[in-house]
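FAQ: What does the model actually see?

It sees only this:
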Amino acid sequence: MNQPDVTSITDLQRFLLESTPTVPIFQFLPALVGTAILCALVGLFYQRYGQSLSNRESLARIFPAVGMTTMLVITIVKSSLALSLGLVGALSIVRFRTAIKEPEELAYLFLTIGIGLGLGASQWLVTLSGFVVILGVLWVRARSAATDEGKHLYLTIRQPGASGATLGSITRTLQEHCTGLDLKRFDEAQDGLEASYRVSFESYEQLERAKQALRAISGAISLSFVDQEAVL
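And it is asked to produce this:
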């Protein structure tokens, strides 16, 4: 039976322990600034063309920080096998405490992380090309949606308590009075429920009838109509 080569194992251990990455500061700083600029542009694009019901301005503010942090980590570990292995172990204990409730938020966060990864790996051309193409596709999608769907309102319905309106009764009522209906979010807990829809009406009279029908389901229900362009 062949014995392991002690010299090779020792050399590998020495390599893992003694190898330290050397990152030229004049290469690192332009990449860091470039990451901040690109992620800030992603944030502005998200605020203007995003369809999320959450506070888009608040989420967009963290994009540069997420991108620069990712870029910093990748720059440090890319030339060190030991640090790369340590990063795998560190990421295994990371837990996200805030749930991402809308897929669009996750898509923009992945785009931001991708920018940090690309510039951290010094892949400027690939990163810039992907940045332009992805935002171009998202822009075409947003413009097409605006042209096809027209004017919409966001409706948020809150029902306190365990009794009263249900998701089914609310949806059926809205279907009777709306020309367009799309459920965007639904949360239910012991203290009540909250549902968010994107709705469209042909007239204010139709909106008023929908409101009265919802009030008839439960007197404790609360309604909030918001113009789509005003949601940030």
